[in-house]
Design brief:
single chain, alpha+beta, TolA/TonB C-terminal domain, four-stranded antiparallel sheet, 13% strand
């Protein structure tokens, strides 16, 4: 038998299988669920089950503080006085003390008064005690003595003065000036000037820092400060000069 020349076998074609859609599957599930519910309601028993009697179970009872075993858990049972100790019968029940009664049945008895004895003790005290009489003191009152005060005019300066301050303190001067007395009816504050001195000792600049209140006195201070001469130095130096004015009362013209 030659199989090489034989025709292949042919099978009949099967009809196509129709697939279910998702709508049919959902409908089938709903129908099955409804059938289960129907069987439960139709065939289920509606009789309530009777509870079984509880037997042969352990029972727990809570112990109170009156039990002997519960008292052993108290940490102060043997350390401190305790109500369940052997001695509370003595210190927890104090002895009864009867209060005294102040209801007196007898009427009050007053001491009799002897009028003849009134003042006898005072009279005997005055007769047996001598009292010293102090004579009045006629000493004159002390007089207060005040020390003599020095004359005020001698304590005040009698002429105007000046002094150097600042960086020019200690630099020697080649000349001196004399500040005049100012005619003024009151006390004048000092005039303070700032000086700039060159290397040769000449005053290059004089500036008024604090005024005395009198223009004539301030102008005199500026003129006198410019006439000062100092010893030569290696650099320019700043300093101050302060004029303390002595005033006299101005005379009427």
């Amino acid at each position: 038998m030659n199989t090489g020349d034989a025709a292949p076998h042919s099978f009949p074609e099967l009809p196509p299988v129709e697939s279910w859609g998702w709508k049919k599957l959902c409908l089938l599930i709903l129908l099955a669920f409804a059938a289960h519910l129907g069987f439960i309601f139709l065939l289920g028993e509606r009789k309530t089950a009777a509870p079984r009697a509880v037997t042969n179970v352990p029972v727990f009872h809570l112990a109170d503080n009156s039990g002997d075993l519960a008292r052993l858990t108290d940490p102060t049972l043997f350390a401190l006085p305790h109500a369940a100790d052997f001695a509370p019968g003595t210190w927890t029940r104090p002895p009864a003390v009867a209060s005294p009664s102040f209801a007196y049945a007898a009427p009050p008895a007053f001491l009799p008064l002897n009028p003849a004895s009134l003042g006898v003790a005072f009279s005997a005290f005055m007769r047996t005690n001598l009292f010293a009489v102090r004579p009045p003191s006629f000493k004159p009152e002390p007089q207060l003595a005040a020390p003599p005060l020095p004359a005020i005019e001698s304590a005040l300066p009698q002429s105007s003065s000046w002094h150097i301050a600042g960086g020019l303190v200690g630099r020697k001067m080649l000349n001196t000036i004399s500040a005049p007395t100012v005619a003024w009816s009151d006390v004048l504050p000092p005039s303070r000037l700032q000086l700039l001195v060159d290397t040769d000792g000449h005053v290059l600049s004089a500036v008024l820092l604090d005024t005395s209140g009198d223009d004539a006195a301030d102008q005199t201070a500026l003129e006198l400060a410019r006439t000062l001469r100092f010893m030569p130095a290696e650099k320019l130096m700043f300093g101050q000069i302060i004029f303390n004015w002595h005033t006299v009362a101005a005379t009427a013209p």
